[in-house]
From TrEMBL:
Gene from which the chain derives: bioA
Catalyzed reactions per annotation: (8S)-8-amino-7-oxononanoate + S-adenosyl-L-methionine = S-adenosyl-4-methylsulfanyl-2-oxobutanoate + (7R,8S)-7,8-diammoniononanoate
Family to which the UniProt record says this protein belongs: Belongs to the class-III pyridoxal-phosphate-dependent aminotransferase family. BioA subfamily.
UniProt keyword DNA repair present: no
Binding site for substrate: 67, 160, 290, 323, 407
Protein name as catalogued: Adenosylmethionine-8-amino-7-oxononanoate aminotransferase
Cofactor(s) this protein cannot do without: pyridoxal 5'-phosphate
């Protein structure tokens, strides 16, 4: 232990001490190990509503909803109370051979809310793990059906499905974040992503190419995995629901399972409760995460049809071969139940339409700005795509100076604000984006 960082009395560390310890010992997501004496990261001391309060005194609007999960804002009294009530009963109990009320009630609610036919719920620890579970379900299903040759996945480029190994193998192999591991990952099939644009008419040539590929390879394809309508961390692309509907039809025709990754799009973010609803389709397997618990703690779920579940259990193993230690954690399930009930118990559709209108209005000045390639909005998602990659650190510093927290990546500066954001919050958020990007 570094004596400069020790605090044997158990008292509170000073801000300089906290910054120094953070730089010396903590490795943050997608970042280099910090250099001692370099710029310190903002340290969040408290969060309330849409605001983060830094230990250094700044108060900023969180335009990221803490990586898209904090639907109802921070420190929400309903979610706080749900967590407090549950922790007095039990924080955790193993799910192997046991069950509990929060998981049972949450599973029932998810079955009621998700697209028709998704009747079985498998709880997992995180979004990436829910994708691993989905992949495992698809592979074990076909093995149980006596067709083990169906062991490869089909997906579209510009996708992102998580950072664990199975999930990484389905992310974009060139433009994604995991190309360094390409030699270690299973090899799957990648199609070109559908042409961008929510309202663009489907391209017959593109759909013909997809059909030809699936027709030629369906004997080895276990499942087609994709993010419906909105591709998130792979590029914040929007595509027409007509393509999703066509993909579903082809999967049914050629005996391929469809996996919908709604980790980022679920729970109203796109203007529908689930993005699959834009195309009126139901997948064979559905992945949920992020906003499932209202951003309070890690929790995910993988839902599947009775056909998939029964098909797996009728096979050689007789059971689905997966079981996380913290599966269906009661504290997380109780909070997720409260968050989901809070969402559907209000006119959330009007809230999303209001956010969409404010983002369209507020970001419109950037459409013709120098250096801007595109501005697009869908539901509670606002994206500004620049012509060149941005300097993330300097851009974040400028945004913080204007009272806003965002985390750009590559050429993209985007926002997914909490659903409780007021008109003033959204105006301030858009104004900071416009002013900062106009200076770039």
């Amino acid at each position: 232990m570094n004596p400069e960082n020790s605090n044997p009395s158990g008292g509170q560390f000073s801000l300089p001490q906290l910054e120094r310890i953070d730089q010396q010992h903590i490795w943050h997501p997608y970042s280099q190990v910090a250099e001692e004496g370099g710029p310190a990261l903002p340290i969040v001391e408290r969060a309330e509503g849409v605001h983060l309060e830094f230990a250094s005194g700044e108060r900023v609007i969180d335009g990221m909803s803490s990586w898209w999960c904090m639907l109802h804002g921070y420190n929400h009294p309903v979610l706080n109370q749900a967590a407090k009530d549950q922790i007095d009963k039990m924080a955790h109990v193993m799910f192997g051979g046991l069950s509990h009320q929060p998981a049972i009630e949450l599973a029932q609610l998810l079955v009621e809310l998700t697209p028709d036919g998704l009747d079985t719920v498998f709880f997992a620890d995180s979004g990436s793990v829910s994708v691993e579970v989905a992949i495992k379900m698809a592979l074990q299903y076909w093995h149980s059906q006596g067709r083990p040759e169906k062991q490869r996945l089909l997906t579209i480029k510009n996708g992102y499905h998580g950072d664990t190994f199975g999930a990484m193998a389905t992310c974009d192999p060139v433009n994604g974040m995991h190309h360094l591991f390409s030699g270690n990952l299973p090899k799957h099939h990648f199609l070109e992503a559908p042409p961008a644009g929510l309202d663009t008419a489907p391209c017959p040539d593109y759909l013909a190419q997809v059909r030809t590929f699936i027709e030629s390879h369906h004997h080895e394809i276990a499942a087609f995995i994709l993010e419906p309508i909105v591709q998130g961390a792979g590029g914040m692309r929007f595509y027409s629901p007509a393509y999703l509907k066509a993909f579903k039809t082809l999967c049914e025709e050629f005996d391929v399972l469809l996996i919908a990754d709604e980790i980022a799009t679920g729970f109203g973010r796109t203007g529908k409760l689930f993005a699959c609803e834009h195309a009126g389709i139901s997948p064979d397997i559905l992945c949920l995460g992020k906003a499932l618990s209202g951003g309070y703690m890690t929790l995910a779920a993988t839902l599947c049809t009775a056909n998939v579940a029964n098909g797996i259990c009728q096979g050689e193993a007789g059971v689905f071969m997966h079981g996380p230690t913290f599966m269906a954690n009661p504290l997380a399930c109780a909070t997720a139940l409260a968050s989901t009930r809070l969402l559907i118990g209000q006119d959330w559709q009007s809230k999303i339409r209001f956010i969409e209108e404010q983002l369209q209005l507020g970001l419109a000045p950037l459409k013709d700005a120098p250096g801007v390639a595109d501005v697009r909005v869908m539901g509670a998602i606002g994206v500004v795509e620049m012509k060149e990659a941005v300097d993330k650190e300097s851009l974040q510093k400028a945004l913080i100076g204007r009272g806003v927290w965002l985390r750009p990546f590559g050429k993209l500066v985007y926002t997914m604000p909490p659903f409780i954001s007021s008109e003033n919050d959204l105006r301030a958020l858009c104004k900071a984006m416009v002013e900062t990007l106009s200076e770039v």
